[in-house]
Design a protein that fits this description.
With 452 residues, the protein is mostly beta strands. The protein has helices spanning 11-19, 347-362, 380-399, 425-431; strands at 5-6, 9-10, 21-31, 41-46, 49-55, 62-68, 71-77, 84-87, 97-105, 116-118, 138-146, 156-161, 167-171, 177-182, 186-193, 200-206, 214-220, 225-231, 241-246, 253-254, 256-257, 264-267, 273-280, 286-294, 297-303, 336-337, 366-373, 408-414, 433-440. The chain has 4 domains: 1-106, Immunoglobulin-like (Sandwich); 116-220, Immunoglobulin-like; 229-305, Immunoglobulin-like (Sandwich); 336-446, 60s Ribosomal Protein L30, Chain: A, CATH 3.30.1330.60.
């Protein structure tokens, strides 16, 4: 999709700066049962309305969307699947963040006989008459479970009989089970309710009487609960794995490692509650552990990894001096460059910032000044916002590595301090940058890193 260029950067990013982007969601939509990627519509709830964001890609299910701070929930919809809702919990983000998520969609139950299906799938159907033997019944057991976690649920199951107009309600036991005998062919409406879950409204066409006992699965959906774990840099050759163990249980759950994103893990089938988060090496040695609380919606956990000493250098010939009693701090830190009209970090920028973050974690008495710049194309007031926004994105990357916000000092100058000529693309590219400078510890009152 081609974006309209306005004032030196895309309209999309202009609006992002003005509206306040709290999070960039990067991920994939997939079928929960088969793990096949899906194309689905993405939108966000804003106040009483909604705002369309786009569609996940055909064939891959991948998406990248910027979410404004005013959004309260991500909505995911596809024909043939039950809609999903992810509360965003955006108050946890102090600066624009990039978070990887996997969105599972559960296929609807199609219309059939002698099994439940969603009322939305009801098609015109005439139940055939049949010779019924007196006393014949269909003995049915209904098993109610969490659609994603598979855990049995205590729920109320109500049956509405078309022929008699009667209503019968049953409660499931601790195993999520209840039983009923159907004594007549009928189309029976079913409503299943459990605390914290979407109500299930379905039908069952009772056709078979006098046969074997039947078992029916009813899967209830709650609002999505997703955990995204983003760890900082690790030692050479170390490939950590993420584990999560719920309080009161004995078996840990392995988190999904995100391909191509070292140290990033996710889970989307969690029940809200208290957990212990662990990062372990290939031999199951614990590298990091912490108690966490998982709430309904989006949960993000930055984890600072213990690392070997890492030097930050601008080039192999220019090592960074280690602070001493009279610290001499290097001025030749690498520059973080950006594509035209963009505030997204490149792979090279992320690699640079991993080194910078590791150094800052090893030297808590050192702060960092981040200054954002742009080329001179477009309106200077908007360029100043974009420069500051780029600096905040860089600061946020360091924040997720465990660097405290009060050690990051942000400034944005737009095109005020240009480097070189501005009559060619190469020169303009050198000006789309964030410069980094190590500085001695500053009073907390000087910190301006929080993004609101």
């Amino acid at each position: 999709m081609r974006l309209l260029l306005l004032c030196g950067f895309t309209l999309l990013h202009t609006l992002a700066v003005r509206a306040g982007v709290c999070v960039r969601l990067v991920g994939v939509v997939q079928d929960f049962a088969t793990h096949q990627p899906l194309s689905a519509k993405l939108s966000v709830r804003v106040g009483a309305g909604r705002m369309a964001l786009g569609t996940s890609a055909d064939g891959t299910g991948q998406f990248t969307v910027d979410v404004a701070c005013t959004a309260t929930a991500l909505l995911i919809e596809r024909t043939g699947y039950r809609p999903q809702r992810l509360p965003l919990n955006l108050t946890m983000f102090s600066a624009p963040a990039e978070v990887y998520v996997v969105i599972p969609l559960v296929a609807v139950d199609r219309q059939g006989t002698d099994r439940p299906y969603l009322q939305t799938e009801q098609k015109h159907y005439v139940q055939p008459a049949g010779g019924l033997s007196a006393g014949q019944v269909q003995h049915s057991t209904f098993a109610v479970a969490d659609a994603l976690a598979g855990a049995p649920l205590r729920a109320q199951v109500c049956f509405f009989f078309t022929k008699t107009g009667k209503k019968t309600c049953l409660d499931t036991d601790a195993a999520g089970l209840c039983t009923i005998d159907f004594t007549d062919k009928d189309i029976v409406a079913i409503e299943v309710q459990a605390a914290g879950y979407q109500a299930y409204q379905g039908n069952i066409s009772v056709e078979q009487l006098g046969g074997p006992a039947l078992r029916h699965e009813v899967r209830l959906l709650r609002e999505l609960t997703i955990l995204a774990v983003q760890s900082g840099p690790v030692g050479p050759g170390l490939l950590p794995q993420g584990e999560l163990q719920r309080e009161g249980t004995s078996t840990p759950q392995r988190l999904l490692a995100v391909a191509g994103r070292a140290g990033v893990f996710t889970a989307n089938d969690l029940v809200p509650g208290r957990y212990e988060l662990r990062l372990v090496d290939q031999a199951s040695n614990v590298l990091q552990r912490r108690p966490i609380s998982v709430v309904t919606g989006l949960n993000v956990q930055p984890v600072t990894m213990a690392t070997r000493p890492v030097s930050v250098t601008a080039a192999p010939t220019a090592p960074l001096a280690t602070p001493s009693a009279a610290p001499v701090l290097a001025d030749n830190l690498p520059v973080v460059f950006f594509d035209e009209g963009s505030y997204a970090l490149t792979g090279a920028a992320r690699a640079t910032l991993q080194q910078v973050g590791a150094y800052l974690l090893q030297h808590p008495d050192v702060h960092l000044r981040l200054v954002g710049h742009t080329d001179r194309l477009g309106d200077e007031n908007l360029n100043k916002y974009l420069g500051e926004f780029r600096a905040k994105v860089v600061a946020n990357c360091l924040h997720w590595q465990g660097v405290a916000d009060d050690r990051l000092h942000i400034e944005g100058y737009g095109s005020r301090f240009l480097v070189g000529a501005q009559d060619n693309a190469e020169s303009r590219g050198r000006n789309r940058r964030v410069t980094l400078k190590l500085i001695p510890a500053q009073p907390q009152t000087a910190t301006v890193s929080n993004y609101k």
